[in-house]
Design brief:
The complex is a heterodimer. By secondary structure, chain A is of the alpha+beta class. In chain A, 19% of the residues lie in helices and 31% in strands. In chain A, β2 and β3 form a beta hairpin. Chain B is an alpha/beta fold. The chains are: A alpha+beta, B alpha/beta. The interface between A and B is large, with 97 and 82 residues.
Chain lengths: 449, 302
């Protein structure tokens, strides 16, 4: 068996010796581990054939996030000539049996600069809802393309879904470059084709990298085979891409999640509104408006996990105290009087449908939007979108499993919404089937064009 | 403290996500309970629950599924912590269930599997609809696949091939009577994150997580401290070693590791350089098969 690389130290039989916690190695490791870092969430999409799992295995292995006992288990389970790094992430019995990824697996690794949460998502069309689950929280999506095959239907679909969810950064990893003789020409033609497709999708940031996941070229280490490539390695890009500015820090939106009333002698008059800042920045002294009542008041104080804070911004979980004793409950939203979301019962959104039973006009359904859940009726299916051609079919009578379309809904109560393109947190919702309780759809409020 | 660039550290980000999840459960589900073993993960989870509702008390009870095979240190810690926080402790006892005949002791002495029916009976008796568990996705391949809100049917079973989509931070906690949601607020934390948080927030932990000299026997390449559940077998020699526990499970199955780490800082140094996973290094019961955890979860295990 030829592993991609030998482990640093072979596992010894018997009891492991104690680790010298004061060695230079340990001190260095502590320095890396305890450095103040931010988190970047990454989604990869693809199938085993694209080398997606090999790429993840490579990232984990080269960043030393794979432990010896995990590696040995994978080595034992591998059947071919190579250690099958896909077995590291395909954790379900059915996945290992069928050699496919069915549901998202989450993996964790860090470098001195960043902590990475990697959602390894399935590529097959029948598991699109699981891919959407993994990509929905991502800051960056990696789409893998086999250099020999170029852009396939699947790569288009992955790029489209990432753009639909407004994943702010897209990376196309052109893999298996070793099998096309490191051809600059092939790389450039794939890059140009993808760039043309991406420009139709409004992808804000696209990076294309030539790699060999199997051999590690341009993944963690620069390749000596691609002298014509002037960009950075994949990991370098993941470490340095600027994600903090992707959040909306302009429009204060605070959906009230839970009301905290201690009712104890020590905190007799305490009444705080707990929630996660969806967007914008909140500060004590800010004049605010509470929706749906429309009453205005002032922020008296904001309590974070370690006591009062001077400001709160996404994704902080805090408790807001108000100066006036106004009526506020779960599902209400705190904003600024001069900067409020749209209150509306009419929802026009792109919906990704995730249930076997199709979505049809006149159907009744529940919408969960921020902390507010209301009933709604499907008024109209404006069109169904062909994900591969981006063609719109206005004649479609329903949305089937994994279909995407523009849907108009009428809610029983107003929702406080923003355009998803401007505010991801208040421009999105999920749909719940009230009979089965299943999550059956994901919606994004984007203007019709 | 002002943060000029509006960026949270990794621990602050994870903390915010966990608090959001804990609050969401209390807002949407009627009778939650937090599974508290006195191990480091459930200790951190309980600390996050405290922060989520401060200055009010934690608005739900905690439950310990007591296998009767506990480290005394850990039980003592459990009772002390629960008293400090003023939360109700419910103990679901495996020995009581064995005595009542509702479960049978397994021949290998492990109570890992038989604690599942005891848990499920307690859930039914108290009508709990949501159970907070301290499991992390980095622990195991099956856990790496599970949602933060993990739907369970009336038998507590997990159906890994038919999980609810979990999109953005919009969690769906809807259930029918008898069904429940297992909630894992620490899903995205790693072992190292847990220890860094313990250090940063000065969270109290049971002493057996730190190295001290103990009498041990060696079994299948692992060191087990001699205690009321572990007695030397024929041919086994008792020796004194400086060890600590990296995980805390049943006292008859949890191995210790040779360690020099006597402070939390040193534990962090140890974990930062170790090349073994925590379960691989310390759990006799996880070595059975590659899918052991998936199979147990399908039966209703946390």
């Amino acid at each position: 068996m030829t592993p991609v690389d030998q482990p640093d130290t072979a596992a010894q039989p018997g009891v492991h010796p104690p680790i010298d916690v004061h060695s230079p190695v340990a001190e260095h490791a502590v320095e890396i581990a305890t450095a103040r870092k931010d988190i970047i969430r990454i989604a990869t999409a693809g199938s085993v054939d694209d080398g997606k799992s090999t790429l993840i295995g490579r990232l984990l292995y080269d960043s030393k996030a794979i432990f010896e006992d995990q590696y040995e288990a994978v080595e034992r389970a591998s059947k071919g000539d190579y250690v099958d790094l896909a077995l590291l992430t395909d954790g379900l019995r059915a996945e290992r049996e069928q050699g496919i990824t069915i549901d998202v697996a989450y993996r964790y690794f860090s470098t001195p600069r960043r902590t990475f949460i990697l959602a390894d998502t399935p590529g097959h069309v029948q598991y699109t809802r699981n891919m959407v689950t993994g990509a929905s929280t991502a800051d960056l999506a990696i789409v893998l393309v086999d250099a020999r095959k170029g852009m396939l239907e699947q790569s288009r679909r992955h790029a489209f879904l990432a753009s639909l969810l407004r994943v702010p950064h897209l990376v196309v990893a052109v893999n298996k470059m070793d099998l096309v003789d490191w051809s600059e020409e092939i790389f450039e033609s794939i890059r140009d084709e993808f760039s043309a497709f991406a420009s139709k999708l409004n992808v804000p940031d696209l990076t294309v990298v030539p790699i060999s996941a199997l051999h590690g070229d341009n993944v963690v280490r620069h390749s000596t085979n691609t002298s014509w490539y002037e960009g950075t390695t994949l990991l370098h890009h993941l470490e340095h891409v600027h994600v903090a500015s992707d959040r909306n820090l302009v429009d204060p939106r605070f959906p009230v999640q839970y009301v905290i009333r201690p009712q104890s002698d020590a905190h007799h008059d305490y009444r705080g509104y707990a929630g996660t800042v969806a967007s914008g920045v909140l500060r004590p002294g800010d004049e605010v408006q509470v929706l749906p009542s429309g009453l205005t008041t002032t922020i008296a104080g904001i309590d974070g996990p370690r006591g009062p804070v001077d400001e709160a911004f996404p994704p902080m979980s805090v408790t807001v105290r108000l100066t006036d004793d106004v009526d506020v409950s779960r599902g209400d939203l705190i904003c600024r009087p001069a900067n409020a979301p749209t209150a509306t019962q009419d929802i026009d959104a792109l919906v990704c449908w995730m249930a076997d039973e199709p979505l049809r006009p006149r159907q009744r359904i529940a919408i969960k939007h921020t902390t507010r859940t209301v009933r709604a009726v499907v008024k109209d299916l404006t069109y169904r979108l062909d994900v591969n051609t981006l063609h719109r079919d206005p004649e479609a009578g329903e949305l089937g499993l994994n279909d995407i379309g523009r849907v108009r809904l009428r809610a029983t109560q107003p929702l406080f919404v923003d355009d998803y393109l401007r505010n991801r947190a208040t421009g999105r919702f999920i749909l719940i089937d009230e009979a089965t309780n299943a999550t059956v759809g994901a919606g994004m409020l984007t203007p019709a064009s | 403290m002002p943060t000029p660039d509006y960026r949270l550290s990794q621990l602050e980000t994870l903390e915010a996500e966990s608090i959001h999840v804990i609050r969401e459960v209390v807002a949407e589900l009627e009778r939650p309970v937090l599974l508290f073993s006195g191990g480091k993960d459930s200790i951190v989870m309980l600390e996050l629950a405290r922060k989520a509702f401060a200055p009010a008390r934690i608005p739900f009870p905690v439950m310990h599924v007591d296998t009767g095979l506990n480290f005394p240190d850990v039980l003592e810690f459990r009772d002390k912590r629960v008293a400090e926080l003023g939360v109700q402790l419910i103990v679901a006892s495996v020995p009581d269930a064995i005595a009542a005949g509702t479960v049978k002791e397994e021949p290998n002495g492990s109570r890992n599997r038989i604690q599942t029916p005891v848990l499920l009976d307690a859930v039914e008796e108290h009508g709990f609809t949501a159970l907070f568990g301290g499991a992390r996705r980095d622990e195991d391949k099956a856990r790496a696949k599970e949602r933060l809100f993990s739907f369970r049917d009336e038998f507590g079973q997990w159906d890994p091939k038919n999980q609810r989509p979990e999109i953005w931070d919009l969690y769906n906690g809807r259930i029918h009577l008898g069904e429940s949601i297992r909630v894992f607020p620490l899903s995205n934390w790693t072992e190292l994150d847990i220890w860094q948080y313990i250090l940063q927030e000065d969270v109290a932990i049971p002493p057996l997580y730190l190295a001290q000299e103990r009498e041990v026997v060696e079994r299948q390449g692992m060191l087990y401290a001699v205690n009321e559940f572990i007695r030397p077998r024929d041919g086994e020699e008792i020796r004194r070693e400086t060890v600590r526990y990296r995980t805390v499970g049943d006292a008859n199955l949890t191995a210790a590791v040779l360690s020099e780490a006597v402070t939390v800082e040193e534990v962090i140094a140890e974990i930062a350089v170790t090349r073994m996973t925590e379960r691989g290094a310390t759990r006799g019961d996880d070595k059975v098969s590659d899918a052991a955890m998936e199979d147990r979860k399908k039966e209703g295990y946390f």
